[in-house]
Specification:
mainly alpha, 5 helices, elongated
Length: about 140
Protein backbone atom coordinates (compact mmCIF):
# COMPACT_ATOMS: atom_id res chain seq x y z
CA UNK A 1 0.00 0.00 0.00
CA UNK A 2 2.92 2.35 0.61
CA UNK A 3 3.97 2.07 -3.03
CA UNK A 4 0.41 2.81 -4.16
CA UNK A 5 0.32 5.87 -1.89
CA UNK A 6 3.65 7.09 -3.29
CA UNK A 7 2.41 6.65 -6.86
CA UNK A 8 -0.85 8.46 -6.10
CA UNK A 9 1.06 11.35 -4.54
CA UNK A 10 3.25 11.50 -7.65
CA UNK A 11 0.15 11.55 -9.86
CA UNK A 12 -1.41 14.21 -7.63
CA UNK A 13 1.69 16.39 -7.93
CA UNK A 14 1.56 16.10 -11.73
CA UNK A 15 -2.17 16.98 -11.75
CA UNK A 16 -1.42 19.91 -9.48
CA UNK A 17 1.05 21.22 -12.04
CA UNK A 18 -1.60 20.98 -14.75
CA UNK A 19 -4.11 22.81 -12.55
CA UNK A 20 -1.55 25.47 -11.67
CA UNK A 21 -0.71 26.14 -15.31
CA UNK A 22 -4.05 25.74 -17.06
CA UNK A 23 -6.89 26.34 -14.61
CA UNK A 24 -8.17 29.68 -13.35
CA UNK A 25 -10.24 29.40 -10.21
CA UNK A 26 -12.97 32.06 -10.33
CA UNK A 27 -12.80 34.66 -7.57
CA UNK A 28 -16.48 34.15 -6.77
CA UNK A 29 -17.74 30.62 -6.17
CA UNK A 30 -19.39 28.81 -3.24
CA UNK A 31 -16.91 28.96 -0.39
CA UNK A 32 -14.77 31.80 -1.76
CA UNK A 33 -13.30 34.15 0.87
CA UNK A 34 -15.12 32.51 3.79
CA UNK A 35 -15.49 34.06 7.24
CA UNK A 36 -15.34 30.53 8.72
CA UNK A 37 -12.40 28.62 7.21
CA UNK A 38 -13.70 25.07 7.72
CA UNK A 39 -17.23 25.68 6.46
CA UNK A 40 -15.98 27.74 3.54
CA UNK A 41 -13.32 25.18 2.65
CA UNK A 42 -15.86 22.37 2.70
CA UNK A 43 -18.02 24.39 0.30
CA UNK A 44 -15.01 25.21 -1.90
CA UNK A 45 -13.92 21.59 -2.10
CA UNK A 46 -17.49 20.50 -2.82
CA UNK A 47 -17.73 23.10 -5.57
CA UNK A 48 -14.33 22.05 -6.97
CA UNK A 49 -15.40 18.42 -7.23
CA UNK A 50 -18.92 18.95 -8.52
CA UNK A 51 -18.84 22.17 -10.55
CA UNK A 52 -15.21 23.24 -10.90
CA UNK A 53 -13.12 23.07 -14.06
CA UNK A 54 -12.39 19.47 -15.08
CA UNK A 55 -8.72 19.38 -14.09
CA UNK A 56 -9.50 20.99 -10.73
CA UNK A 57 -12.31 18.49 -10.15
CA UNK A 58 -9.99 15.56 -10.89
CA UNK A 59 -7.24 17.04 -8.68
CA UNK A 60 -9.63 17.66 -5.77
CA UNK A 61 -11.26 14.22 -6.11
CA UNK A 62 -7.90 12.46 -6.15
CA UNK A 63 -6.85 14.56 -3.16
CA UNK A 64 -9.84 13.32 -1.17
CA UNK A 65 -9.08 9.72 -2.16
CA UNK A 66 -5.44 10.25 -1.25
CA UNK A 67 -6.37 11.40 2.26
CA UNK A 68 -8.31 8.16 2.76
CA UNK A 69 -5.41 6.12 1.40
CA UNK A 70 -2.91 7.95 3.63
CA UNK A 71 -5.00 7.18 6.70
CA UNK A 72 -5.26 3.54 5.64
CA UNK A 73 -1.49 3.25 5.08
CA UNK A 74 -0.75 4.85 8.46
CA UNK A 75 -3.23 2.63 10.32
CA UNK A 76 -1.87 -0.50 8.62
CA UNK A 77 1.71 0.41 9.47
CA UNK A 78 0.79 1.17 13.08
CA UNK A 79 -1.12 -2.11 13.45
CA UNK A 80 1.85 -4.01 12.04
CA UNK A 81 4.12 -2.27 14.56
CA UNK A 82 6.40 -1.47 11.67
CA UNK A 83 8.73 0.87 13.60
CA UNK A 84 10.26 3.56 11.38
CA UNK A 85 8.00 2.57 8.49
CA UNK A 86 5.04 3.44 10.71
CA UNK A 87 6.64 6.77 11.58
CA UNK A 88 7.16 7.64 7.91
CA UNK A 89 3.62 6.50 7.08
CA UNK A 90 2.06 8.66 9.78
CA UNK A 91 4.23 11.63 8.85
CA UNK A 92 3.38 11.15 5.16
CA UNK A 93 -0.32 11.07 6.03
CA UNK A 94 -0.06 14.25 8.09
CA UNK A 95 1.76 15.98 5.25
CA UNK A 96 -0.98 14.92 2.81
CA UNK A 97 -3.65 16.29 5.13
CA UNK A 98 -1.67 19.52 5.41
CA UNK A 99 -1.40 19.69 1.63
CA UNK A 100 -5.16 19.21 1.41
CA UNK A 101 -5.82 22.08 3.81
CA UNK A 102 -3.54 24.32 1.76
CA UNK A 103 -5.30 23.22 -1.42
CA UNK A 104 -8.65 24.16 0.09
CA UNK A 105 -7.15 27.45 1.24
CA UNK A 106 -5.92 28.14 -2.29
CA UNK A 107 -9.40 27.58 -3.71
CA UNK A 108 -10.88 29.71 -0.90
CA UNK A 109 -8.56 32.71 -1.17
CA UNK A 110 -6.48 32.24 -4.36
CA UNK A 111 -3.15 32.92 -2.65
CA UNK A 112 -0.06 31.53 -4.34
CA UNK A 113 1.56 30.77 -0.97
CA UNK A 114 -1.11 28.14 -0.34
CA UNK A 115 -0.35 26.55 -3.70
CA UNK A 116 3.37 26.49 -2.93
CA UNK A 117 2.81 25.00 0.52
CA UNK A 118 0.49 22.37 -0.97
CA UNK A 119 3.19 21.33 -3.45
CA UNK A 120 5.97 21.28 -0.84
CA UNK A 121 3.89 19.25 1.60
CA UNK A 122 3.01 16.77 -1.16
CA UNK A 123 6.70 16.42 -2.02
CA UNK A 124 7.42 15.84 1.68
CA UNK A 125 4.75 13.13 1.77
CA UNK A 126 6.29 11.51 -1.31
CA UNK A 127 9.70 11.55 0.41
CA UNK A 128 8.16 9.91 3.50
CA UNK A 129 6.55 7.12 1.48
CA UNK A 130 9.72 6.48 -0.51
CA UNK A 131 11.72 6.38 2.73
CA UNK A 132 9.18 3.95 4.16
CA UNK A 133 9.58 1.73 1.10
CA UNK A 134 13.34 1.81 1.51
CA UNK A 135 13.04 0.84 5.18
CA UNK A 136 10.73 -2.11 4.55
CA UNK A 137 12.52 -5.39 5.21
CA UNK A 138 13.44 -7.36 2.11
CA UNK A 139 11.26 -10.35 1.39
CA UNK A 140 13.09 -13.65 1.43
CA UNK A 141 13.68 -15.12 -2.00
CA UNK A 142 11.33 -17.97 -2.86
CA UNK A 143 12.85 -21.43 -2.77
CA UNK A 144 14.14 -22.44 -6.17
CA UNK A 145 13.24 -26.10 -6.38
Amino acid sequence: MTLAAALLVLLQIALGMVVNLYVTVPAHHPGANPADYFTGSARSVGWSVSEGPVWLAVHASLGLALVLMAISVAVSALRARAGWVAVTSVLGGLLIIGAGFNGASFVDFGRNLSSLLMALLALGALACYLTGLYLLPARPAPDAR
